[in-house]
Design a protein that fits this description.
- The complex is a heterodimer of chains A (117) and B (113).
- The model of chain A has no long low-confidence stretch (mean pLDDT 92).
- Helices cover 0% and strands 53% of the residues of chain A.
- With 117 residues, chain A is an all-beta fold.
- Chain A is built from no helices and twelve strands.
- In chain A, strands 2, 5, 6, 10, 11 and 12 form a six-stranded mixed β-sheet that branches.
- Helix content of chain B is 0%, strand content 46%.
- Chain B contains no helices and eleven strands.
- In chain B, the strands form two sheets. In chain B, strands 2, 4, 5, 6, 9, 10 and 11 form a seven-stranded mixed β-sheet that branches. Chain B has a four-stranded antiparallel β-sheet with strand order 1-3-8-7, with no helix packed on it.
- Chain B starts with a strand and ends with a strand.
- The model of chain B has no long low-confidence stretch (mean pLDDT 92).
- The chains are: A mainly beta (117), B mainly beta (113).
């Protein structure tokens, strides 16, 4: 069975602070994909990043960076110099390539990030 | 512009009524999905469809039905058998392969009165 845990239910920071959102996953498959999505107050899920299990390189995109560590089954997301527009719910998700459900994503519970001015 | 549209944005239903949520995509994606989101929770899969005229149950299919008569469209019907239908419903699509990223529509918020 696969599982995604986002232990931080809510995080509150002041603008310009750095913040890290944790994601821990469980899977028995060796081939899988990890995702981060952002859900602003409007409700739509916005795709941020996708990583496959064979690529452990960290990635940076502007103020966003992701740290993928297979040894600890973690895929953490850091926002540097946070801004009010970063306020949203952030979801980590897992897709098992060897699973029986076509394209099924397993989502974590989400982390509510509030950035105060 | 390519994308996924869902309508309506807000929907109110009386108990005992069936209601259909619309999902349309012009991304030429093969697979489409319906998720349900409850407050403070992640998304749960209701139904998915890999190709036209074929669909599969997800984790919480009871009380829901779908059809896939066209590649672009994947409507979801919430039936009166669904005991707790008030939720936020999100449609997604992906393609051409199942390993591709899922992209989501803006969602429909259903409230049962």
């Amino acid at each position: 069975a696969q599982k995604v845990t986002q232990a931080q239910t809510e995080i509150s920071v002041v603008e310009k602070e750095d913040v890290t959102l944790d994601c821990v996953y469980e899977t028995r498959d060796t081939t899988y994909y990890l995702f981060w999505y952002k859900q602003p107050p409007s409700g739509e899920l916005v795709f941020l990043i996708r990583r496959n299990s064979f690529d452990e390189q960290n990635e940076i995109s502007g103020r966003y960076s992701w740290n993928f560590q297979k040894s600890t089954s973690s895929f953490n997301f850091t926002i540097t110099a946070s801004q009010v527009v970063d306020s949203a719910v952030y979801f980590c998700a897992l897709f098992n390539a060897g699973g029986t459900s076509y394209g099924k994503l397993t989502f974590g519970q989400g982390t509510i990030l509030t950035v105060h001015p | 512009d390519g994308g996924i549209t869902q309508s309506p944005k807000y929907l109110f239903r009386k108990e005992g009524q069936n209601v259909t949520l619309s999902c349309e995509q012009n991304l030429n994606h093969d697979a489409m999905y319906w998720y349900r989101q409850d407050p403070g929770q992640g998304l749960r899969l209701i139904y998915y469809s890999q190709i036209v005229n074929d669909f599969q149950k997800g984790d919480i299919a009871e009380g829901y039905s779908v059809s896939r008569e066209k590649k672009e469209s994947f409507p979801l019907t919430v039936t009166s058998a669904q005991k707790n239908p008030t939720a936020f419903y999100l449609c997604a699509s992906t393609g051409p392969g199942q390993f591709d990223t899922q992209y989501f529509g803006p969602g429909t918020r259903l409230t049962v009165l």
